[in-house]
Amino acid sequence: MFSHLKNIETAFQHIKRFSYLLIAACTLICGFAVYKSYQFSTQAKQHIYLLANGKVLEALAADRKDNIPVEARDHIRTFHHDFFTLDPDEKVIETNIGKALYLADESARNEYNGLKEKGYYNNLISGNISQRLRIDSIWLDMDQYPYAFKCFAVQTLVRATSTIHKVLITQGYLRNVSRSDNNPHGFLIEKWATLANRDTTISP
């Protein structure tokens, strides 16, 4: 009888250990499944699908910190393009300058007001002069905030009789602001100044 009870107790101990192992295995499997599901969900959220001209295009989302230098350079490029790309039309000038002024502080507005007082934009209109800008390079210091930059570009003034090419070098700082429709990159140019703006070539 005692032997029978001992066998029952031994069997119970085996079943108990087996149950613990089974519970532990189920817990590990469930934990692994939850982890992989979360990982898959995170990866899926990083993929964005765009519909363009009837075609589905896939884009990959990334953290802003990974794109700060790219966005900063594009912000600088967009500002200079809008500020210096002008045609002999008052509406075009107002539109382009207006878009540029959303991307910078009062230093850009002061530059605009100074040029306006000197009659610069009136001369473009009266002389039928178109102004274009080609940016050669942008130096950006991401080690200190606000981020210092220098922009190296070629400014071209096209008139009926000649074309003037100028070297344009500007500098300033970038600080973070909220994104908006008028400022999609979320930067603001501060202490913007022109270091050089001199003629290089004049061609007929």
Automatic annotation (TrEMBL):
Alphabetic keyword roster: Membrane, Transmembrane, Transmembrane helix
Transmembrane annotation, as ranges: 20-38
InterPro entries: Conjug_transposon_TraK
Keyword Membrane: yes
Domain of life: Bacteria
The protein's name in its UniProt record: Conjugative transposon protein TraK
Annotated organism of origin: Mucilaginibacter segetis
Taxonomic placement: Bacteria, Pseudomonadati, Bacteroidota, Sphingobacteriia, Sphingobacteriales
